[in-house]
Write a structure and sequence with these properties.
By secondary structure, the protein is mostly helical. It has one domain. The relative contact order is 0.13.
């Protein structure tokens, strides 16, 4: 089981590193594209027609990659009001239940994202200005959320397999509590 956990952790580190680099690249591209759009529109008085469309598409990619990065760092919005009232083992159980509920939600997004991706109309759609096939962006939904599901499963397994002191330290760090 430890070998499986090491492989899952290595996979998660690899996908997170790739997501971080790709998100950074998309943010940089978006900055350059929007800057050029502003320059062409207001200085050169000759607006570029594709800037808004490309910026919106990059924002979609950044959003999905950012969701994966936030899940990896356990920084997604979570209501800790109830969980913080528990202590010790009960708090760990509450976190496991929380992760299981997240896994259910991720599963729903994977299911409907896959359905959306395979719709015949989705496979034929293109953007209005640049004619970029939208299947790529629809495909990001199940792809990134499968990565999120793997992260969540690894988190659940860590709660069961790691020692309680390590889990308590991780929870305390997340909640900014000194032990």
């Amino acid at each position: 089981m430890k070998t499986l956990m090491r492989r899952l952790d290595a996979f998660n580190r690899g996908t997170t590193t790739a997501a971080r680099w790709l998100a950074d690249l998309c943010v940089a591209a978006m900055i350059v594209i929007v800057f050029c759009g502003v320059l062409w529109r207001y200085v050169l008085r000759d607006p570029l027609s594709w800037v808004d469309e490309m910026a919106a598409l990059l924002l979609v990619v950044i959003s999905f990659l950012g969701c994966h990065l936030a899940m990896h760092k356990k920084k997604l919005a979570r209501i800790d009001l109830l969980i913080s009232r528990f202590g010790g083992r009960a708090r760990t159980v509450a976190y496991v239940v929380s992760e299981c509920l997240s896994l259910v939600m991720v599963g729903v997004v994977i299911y409907y994202g896959t359905k959306l991706f395979f719709l015949p109309t989705s496979l034929r759609q293109r953007t209005s200005g640049m004619y970029i096939p939208l299947w790529f962006f629809y495909g990001l939904i199940p792809l990134t959320f499968v990565g999120n599901a793997i992260l969540t499963v690894a988190n659940i397994l860590h709660y069961f397999l790691d020692d309680e002191e390590k889990i308590a330290r991780e929870i305390a760090e997340r909640e900014n509590i000194a032990l």
